[in-house]
């Protein structure tokens, strides 16, 4: 018991020593502020001493402190967290090297681990994961009270290995179990197509990596006399701020694009549009949904505030804060929210999102066709397919070398968006119709 008391007193002395050492910065407000902070620190150390003395299990001071820091940061907001040696190392791997993953961007919404968006062409996308899915379990581990970093580390792993996600999805009566195989995540961030017979450019931005600005600019400059542009940011979880700012600057020639404000003046910044960077005044429509987050919300919200684009789709996710990784000791750090983004009008994105000008839910365009014509068309396609099978069977018998499967073209090389394709995407069809109206008005 004496040893326990000594350890506790030693820890209290260390805290008091640290508080004295940093009193010039921590207690700079007033004598009343000094007393309040010292009283709070004293309360904290009494709680630590009580836990160390009476808790049912033998728990060390280091473990108590670690749990205290974790709880303190997770209670600040969904994006602040403590990075111990392992998680700090994992973060460096994530930002500096290649890793096997699922291709899911996740966030906390109302305390639940929620899919912001699956990235196009990744294992999660192919497995059928959708924006808004709530992840209940990763393999056998419950995600309740799990931090974002912990969940990401569980989903990441060696390429080729499997992981099982248990999800709750709106409209489903019971949880879904989705097995996914990890892979190296490679994303085609930008691709563009023309809308068939309309002279309207469709540009899809799947995530904001370092090449976005050049790719989008090149796609626009290639086309002449455009009626308009559809910028698709659906299920785009965000990325680099400078690319989001630059993308808005392609369409806006003056004014604030986004501002960043925190408690420390050094973290405050304003990003403004430049006339020299603007390349088009063509009518613009932006598509968003619940999977559009962070940089996507900056782009759509800023263009909306500047009245430069019509925003169509569903309300965005609402992730508009800035995190910094601040080292604590050599191999540990904290991820801390240090600022929030504000749109030109002064409104915040955080927990609010961007509300579209036209609320349009996903789905096919409701329409009626001549029932007989549809049946005839389907029957003809079916018979053509059967004939093709017969021909291929004959060819395979006459040739000893099998025909190689043709390489699927990249999305950027695929054909135009057809009228048939538009009828399967109500949001995109609405965007094209709005551009037609805007081009007439112009």
Q: Could you walk me through the main structural features you see in this protein, from its secondary elements to its overall organization?
A:
The strands form 5 sheets. A 6-stranded mixed sheet has the order 10-11-12-15-16-19, with helices on both faces. Strands 1, 13, 14, 17 and 18 form a 5-stranded antiparallel sheet that branches. The N and C termini lie far apart (84 Å). Helix 1 runs antiparallel to helix 3 and helix 8 runs parallel beside helix 9. The N terminus is likely disordered. The chain folds into 3 domains: 58 residues; 87 residues, PDZ domain (Pdz3 Domain, Roll); 170 residues, 2-enoyl-CoA Hydratase, Chain A, domain 1. It is globular. 38% of the residues lie in helices and 22% in strands. It is an alpha+beta fold.
Please specify the SSE layout and strand pairing:
Elements: H1 2-21, H2 23-26, H3 31-54, H4 61-74, E1 81-83, H5 85-96, E2 100-101, E3 104-109, E4 112-118, H6 123-127, E5 134-138, E6 141-142, H7 148-155, E7 162-168, E8 176-181, E9 183-184, E10 190-195, E11 200-205, H8 212-221, E12 228-232, H9 241-249, E13 256-262, E14 269-272, E15 284-288, H10 295-305, E16 310-313, E17 321-329, E18 332-342, E19 358-359, H11 371-398, H12 419-423, H13 426-441
Parallel strand pairs: 11-12, 12-15, 15-16, 16-19
Antiparallel strand pairs: 1-18, 2-9, 3-4, 5-6, 5-7, 7-8, 10-11, 13-14, 13-18, 17-18
């Amino acid at each position: 018991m004496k040893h326990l008391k000594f350890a506790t007193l030693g820890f209290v002395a260390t805290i008091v020593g640290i508080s004295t050492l940093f009193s010039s910065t921590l207690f700079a407000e007033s004598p009343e502020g000094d007393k309040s902070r010292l009283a709070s620190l004293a309360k904290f150390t009494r709680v630590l001493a009580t836990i160390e003395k009476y808790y049912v299990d033998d728990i060390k001071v280091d473990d108590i402190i670690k749990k205290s820091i974790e709880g303190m940061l997770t209670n600040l907001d969904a994006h602040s967290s403590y990075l111990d040696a392992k998680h700090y190392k994992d973060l460096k791997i994530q930002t500096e090297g290649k890793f096997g993953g699922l291709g899911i961007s996740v966030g906390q919404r109302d305390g639940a681990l929620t899919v912001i968006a699956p990235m196009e062409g990744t294992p999660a996308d192919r497995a059928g994961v959708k924006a808004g899915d709530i992840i209940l379990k990763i393999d056998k581990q419950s995600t309740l009270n799990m931090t974002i970093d912990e969940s990401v580390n569980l989903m990441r792993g060696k390429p080729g290995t499997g992981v099982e996600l248990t999800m709750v999805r709106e409209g489903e009566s019971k949880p879904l179990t989705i097995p996914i195989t990890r892979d190296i995540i490679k994303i085609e961030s930008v691709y563009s197509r023309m809308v068939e017979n309309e002279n309207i450019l469709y540009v899809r931005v799947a995530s904001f990596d370092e090449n976005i600005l050049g790719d989008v600019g090149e796609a626009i400059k290639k086309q002449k006399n455009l009626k308009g542009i559809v910028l698709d940011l659906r299920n785009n979880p965000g990325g680099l701020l400078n690319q989001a700012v630059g993308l808005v600057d392609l369409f806006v020639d003056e004014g604030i694009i986004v501002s960043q404000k925190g408690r420390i003046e050094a973290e405050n910044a304003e990003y403004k549009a430049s006339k020299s960077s603007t390349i088009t005044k063509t009518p613009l429509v932006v598509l968003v949904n619940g999977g559009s987050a962070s940089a996507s919300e900056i782009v759509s919200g800023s263009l909306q505030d500047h009245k430069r684009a019509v925003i169509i789709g569903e309300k965005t996710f609402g992730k508009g804060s800035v995190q910094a990784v601040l080292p604590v000791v050599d191999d540990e750090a904290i991820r801390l929210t240090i600022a929030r983004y504000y749109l030109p009008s002064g409104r915040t994105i955080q927990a609010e999102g961007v509300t579209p000008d036209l609320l349009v839910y996903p789905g096919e365009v409701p329409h009626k066709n001549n029932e007989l014509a549809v049946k005839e068309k389907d029957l003809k396609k079916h018979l053509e397919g059967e004939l093709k099978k017969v021909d291929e069977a004959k060819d395979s018998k006459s040739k000893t070398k099998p025909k190689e499967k043709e390489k699927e073209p990249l999305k950027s090389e695929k054909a135009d968006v057809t009228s048939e394709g538009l009828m399967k995407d109500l949001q995109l069809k609405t965007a094209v119709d709005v551009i037609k109206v805007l081009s007439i008005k112009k």
